[in-house]
Amino acid sequence: MMGDVICFPMRRRLGKIRRTAELLSARRGRAADHYWRQAVAGIVGHLTRAGLSEVAIRQEVQAFSDAVQEELQRAFRSKGDAA
After folding, report:
1. In whole angstroms, how far apart are CA 6 and each of 2, 39, 56?
2. SS3 content of the chain, % helix, strand, coil (to 5)
3. How far apart are CA 22 and CA 76, in angstroms?
4. What is the C-alpha radius of gyration for the chain, rounded to an integer number of angstroms?
5. Is-contact 49 40, C-beta < 8 A?
6. Which helix (H) or strand (E) holds 75?
7. At 52, which helix (H) or strand (E)?
8. For residues 34 and 37, what is the distance between their CA atoms, to the nearest angstrom?
9. Model pLDDT, residue 82
10. What pLDDT, on a 0 to 100 scale, did the predictor assign at position 76?
11. What is the C-alpha to C-alpha distance for residues 50 and 38, in angstroms, rounded to an integer?
């Protein structure tokens, strides 16, 4: 059985996750949607060039999306604690 080896899984790229969450939180509506689409397109392009399968790319994008959502929620909760 063949599988993809992912040296730097997206869910572990904390700097990129935090930066993406930060930029998303500063945008609303179409601007946020546009930024998110650009971020995902960049990830897909990078993983495609690295030779990952479509399934692995989908899994990595989903893992990244989940991690960004968790970071957004964490940031939101910490803002609430500061009030």
Report:
1. 13, 19, 9
2. 80, 0, 20
3. 11
4. 14
5. no
6. helix 54-82
7. none
8. 5
9. 56
10. 85
11. 18
Give me 28's structure tokens: 């609303």
- Quote the distance between the C-alpha of residue 51 and its chain's center: 19
Structure tokens belonging to residue 79 = 């803002």
Distance CA 34, CA 49 (A): 22
In whole angstroms, give the CA distance from residue 81 to residue 56.
Answer: 37
- Residue position matching structure tokens 């957004």: 72
What is the predicted pLDDT for the residue at 7?
A: 65
Q: Rounded to whole angstroms, how far apart are CA atoms 8 and 34? A: 25
Residues across the chain: 83
C-alpha 39: how far from its chain's center? 7
Give the three-state DSSP class for 30.
Answer: helix
Average pLDDT per block of 10 residues along the chain, 83 residues long: 67 95 96 97 95 94 97 87 57
